């Protein structure tokens, strides 16, 4: 019972992050399932089954808050579904001993990408209003869908930063569109896992509690995306994913690190992680201060222009 409550809380927290940042539900949930010894393919299948419900709830919530560009959803979601089915089939055919470390490496890479991307660069805002072309979104969706199914997460970490980097649509619409299109990816991946491993290795109670937690968090996240600093949240989530998957790899048969090596590694990661969060907070505050100064200067210029017109 305690494990189910914990999974429900994880589902809630993961969806809160995913709906606010456009990524990390699958990566966070799968990382936990791997950490407690779940088979890699079963872990990804469990998360994707839960995501059918959470992504539907998230998409509806983002739609209500006008956070979705439906053209982007169509152009990236269908190729993403194709990639996800292929990725699920690929992972289902890997041996358990090989799949767990491979998945941890994928998750570790995605965690590092999230940490570096949001800590160092924040959110780009140039090129707003320019169209996103199908020749860009289709290959991106195919890749992101494949990574998502094989890694137990990756749709957001691959898709969200790539579209954000283009700077062509507002960040809240990037996040809403990625969350809405993930519904198609979750369905395709789930079908792929049912074909590959069947249902006997999937604990549907775990699916249910992850789903309930995520559905409760979805509308809250859709509201938070307008208010929460993505830069800081990205640094927090990226570090957590790195720490957890480094732990899995160090304890795997591939490395089998000593206790001393593990301890030193955890301390080093924790120091880097803390530094990244502090830097993100500082940069966020600096950006807000700059925006405030620019707003004040703009208002003063407007008033000065009005006074000149009045005196003339």
From TrEMBL:
Pfam families: TauE
Chief site of localization: membrane
InterPro entries xrefs: TM_pro_TauE-like, TSUP/Inactive_protease-like
Cellular localisation: Cell membrane; Membrane
Parts of the chain that traverse the membrane: 72-92, 98-116, 180-198, 204-225, 232-250, 262-281
GO (cellular component) term, any one: plasma membrane
Mode of membrane association: Multi-pass membrane protein
Annotated keywords: Cell membrane, Membrane, Transmembrane, Transmembrane helix
Family: Belongs to the 4-toluene sulfonate uptake permease (TSUP) (TC 2.A.102) family.
Record protein name field: Probable membrane transporter protein
Organism: Nonomuraea soli
């Amino acid at each position: 019972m305690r494990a189910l409550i914990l999974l429900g809380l994880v589902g809630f927290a993961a969806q809160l992050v995913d709906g606010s940042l456009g990524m990390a539900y699958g990566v966070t949930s799968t990382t936990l399932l791997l950490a407690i010894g779940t088979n890699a393919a079963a872990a990804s299948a469990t998360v994707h089954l839960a995501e059918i419900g959470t992504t539907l709830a998230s998409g509806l919530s983002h739609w209500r808050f006008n956070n979705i560009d439906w053209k982007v959803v169509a152009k990236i979601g269908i190729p993403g579904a194709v990639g996800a089915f292929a990725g699920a089939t690929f992972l289902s055919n890997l041996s358990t001993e090989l799949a767990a470390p491979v998945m941890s490496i994928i998750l570790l890479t995605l965690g590092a990408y999230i940490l570096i991307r949001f800590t160092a660069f924040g959110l780009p805002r140039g090129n707003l209003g320019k169209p996103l072309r199908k020749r860009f979104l289709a290959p991106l969706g195919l890749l992101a869908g494949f990574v998502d199914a094989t890694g137990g997460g990756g749709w957001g970490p691959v898709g969200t930063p790539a579209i954000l980097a283009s700077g062509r649509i507002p960040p809240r619409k990037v996040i809403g569109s990625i969350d809405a299109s993930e519904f198609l990816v979750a369905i395709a991946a789930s079908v792929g896992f049912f074909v590959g491993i069947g249902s006997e290795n999937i604990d549907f109670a775990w699916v249910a509690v992850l789903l309930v937690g995520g559905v409760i968090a979805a509308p809250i996240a859709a509201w938070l995306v307008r208010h929460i600093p993505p830069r800081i949240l990205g640094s927090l989530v990226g570090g957590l994913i790195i720490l957890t998957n480094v732990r899995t790899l160090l304890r795997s048969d591939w490395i089998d690190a000593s206790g001393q090596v593990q301890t030193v590694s955890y301390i080093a990661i924790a120091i880097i992680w803390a530094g990244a969060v502090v830097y993100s907070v500082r940069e966020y505050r600096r950006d807000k201060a700059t925006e405030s100064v620019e707003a004040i200067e703009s208002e003063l210029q407007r008033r000065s222009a009005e006074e000149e017109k009045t005196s003339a």
